[in-house]
Write a structure and sequence with these properties.
By secondary structure, the chain is an alpha+beta fold. The chain has one domain. The chain has 2 helices and 5 strands, in the order ββββαβα. The protein has a 3-stranded antiparallel sheet with strand order 4-3-5. Strands 1-2 form a two-stranded antiparallel ribbon. The longest helix has 9 residues, at about 35-45. The chain is extended and about 45 Å long. The structure holds zinc ion (ZN).
Amino acid sequence: MEFFCRHCDEIVVGQPYRVISEEDGVVLLNMTVCRSCYKEARALGLHSEAIQRDRKPRRRRPWADASTLSAGG
Ligand SMILES: [Zn+2]
């Protein structure tokens, strides 16, 4: 997968990661970064996570809805 690392400022091939910095519910930082930047961010104590590669839209399963709605517990 090819993506743009906001920290390196260049196109990178591989697994993209997202680094998020939040304070009092306000997002101060939200950027897509490469693996090495992700490791750096983690070392700094920032919240970071791998971005899921497959961006398939979530399809609801009509056959599953009816049976799960009334389940209690
Ligand atoms: Zn980077």
